[in-house]
Design a protein that fits this description.
single chain; alpha+beta; Fumarylacetoacetate hydrolase, domain 2; 5-stranded mixed beta sheet; 6-stranded mixed beta sheet
Length: about 260
């Protein structure tokens, strides 16, 4: 555990100081997925000890393309805290991050706890609302390069989230058009179906994976379903906007 605690301190310090670090697996190629999740928890626990509050979970590697790229057949998950929240329409400071990128996503707001192996119907029944959202991802590793174990240990690159208007989850959100714009120019186009074929499957997977870690998704939690398109880099002076068909628009700016 001392070894894993040391890695957690390294990653926490890299995030806190916006300073890139070497991949853990470069010096420890035997690092396992189980080790990586322990490191993630130890690192996030350091944030909680500083006064941050857990507000939900995020899913990663939820597109088939990303699974193939990393060479896995399982999604990954990370933890969200209130310090990651960026108010919709406001500005985020670029200096807080190492090399941030942005992904359009769907967010779930939970009205009931969810944990373990559940059906899609049971997962949907626990949802209060859905929203267009964006996640700021920011690997703490040099050159944004990492293995599966590295990225899990690094809280699956999660760094920020922006949530748009909440909608009735009874809407069909299985295959909605998605447009990501930067400074008014369309940068990425996709569909909510890119998230495991249906974003609800991501929520089902989240319930199972969180339970395997001895935790649960709580009422009031936010669950980020995973990236819909490629993730372009962010730079000062940008206005970033995601529109999801039928759900609305979410926007933020990037400042120096």
């Amino acid at each position: 555990m001392d070894r894993l605690q040391g890695y957690a301190e390294i990653l926490d310090g890299a995030a806190l100081n916006a300073c890139a670090t070497r991949q853990l697996t470069h010096s420890d190629p035997g690092l396992s997925v189980a080790d990586a999740y322990r490191i993630q928890k130890l690192s996030v626990d350091r944030r909680l000890a500083r006064g941050e509050r857990r507000i939900g979970v995020k899913m990663g590697l939820t597109s088939r393309a990303k699974m193939l790229q990393v060479g896995v057949d399982e999604v990954a998950w990370g933890r969200l805290t209130d310090a990651m929240l960026i108010e919709e329409g406001s500005a985020m400071s670029r200096v807080r991050f190492v090399h941030p990128r942005v992904e359009p996503e769907v967010a779930f707001l939970m009205k009931a706890p969810l944990s373990g192996r559940v059906t899609g119907a049971a997962a949907l029944a626990a949802v209060e609302a859905i929203a267009p959202a964006m996640e700021i991802i920011d690997s703490r590793y040099e050159n944004f390069k990492f293995s599966l174990c590295d990225v899990i240990a690094d809280n699956t690159s999660s760094s920020g989230l922006v949530i748009g208007p909440w909608n009735d989850p009874a809407k069909d959100f299985s295959n909605l058009g998605v447009i990501l714009e930067i400074n008014g120019f369309v940068t990425e186009v996709g569909s909510t179906a890119a998230i495991l074929g249906h974003p609800l499957r991501s929520l089902v997977a989240a319930a199972r994976l969180v339970a395997e870690a001895g935790e649960q998704i709580n009422a009031g939690d936010i669950v980020m379903a995973g990236g819909i398109t490629a993730a372009p880099s962010l730079a000062p002076g940008q206005t970033v906007r995601t529109t999801i068909q039928g759900l609305g628009t979410v926007t933020f700016q990037v400042e120096a």
